[in-house]
Automatic annotation (TrEMBL):
A GO CC annotation given for this chain: membrane
Enzyme class at the top of the EC tree: transferase
Gene3D superfamilies found in the cross-reference section: Ribonuclease Inhibitor
Name of the protein in its database record: Putative non-specific serine/threonine protein kinase
Organism taxonomic ancestry: Eukaryota, Viridiplantae, Streptophyta, Embryophyta, Tracheophyta
Statement: the UniProt record of this protein carries the keyword Signal: yes
Topology in the lipid bilayer: Single-pass type I membrane protein
InterPro entries: Leu-rich_rpt (IPR001611), LRR_dom_sf (IPR032675), RLP23-like (IPR046956)
Organism: Rosa chinensis (China rose)
GO molecular function: protein serine/threonine kinase activity
Length: 133
């Protein structure tokens, strides 16, 4: 049952090789206790990563999902995030102009930014990772 009685809500929209796609709507905001979101290997046809990601997330996997353009700075608001996978190695359309959002991810234990263009950041990704506690 989805609701406050189930704080361990698990949503995994990747079943075998099924592709989930379309547009992510604001209904995700209503899932206040969502802690796990896996949309890996989906086909979002080069839309932007949404700015309205739920704050309670601990696991976020958007790898190989055809998201495009700039990583939103709102990802930095996910201070409880332990796992972040934005792997775009097969698409190479995802980028970040700065890493300011990254410095707020103090609970991060796993990070995959393979294929993400960080050339415009002006900061070494190794330096950014070393800044995390």
């Amino acid at each position: 049952m989805i609701g406050p009685q189930n704080p361990h809500l698990f949503i995994d929209l990747y079943w075998n090789s099924t592709k989930f796609g379309g547009k992510l709507n604001h209904y995700l905001l209503g899932l206040k206790h969502l802690s796990y979101l896996d949309l890996s290997n989906s086909n979002f046809k080069w839309i932007h990563i949404p700015n309205f990601i739920v704050q309670s997330l601990r696991y976020l996997n958007f790898s190989c999902s055809n998201f495009a353009e700039e990583i939103p700075s709102s990802l930095g608001n996910l201070s409880n995030l332990n796992y972040l996978d934005l792997d775009s190695r097969y698409i190479n359309d995802l980028s970040s102009k700065n890493l300011n959002w990254f410095f707020h991810l103090s609970s991060l234990k796993y990070l995959n930014l393979e294929g993400v263009n960080l050339n415009s950041t002006g900061v070494s990704w190794l330096h950014a990772v070393n800044m995390l506690p």
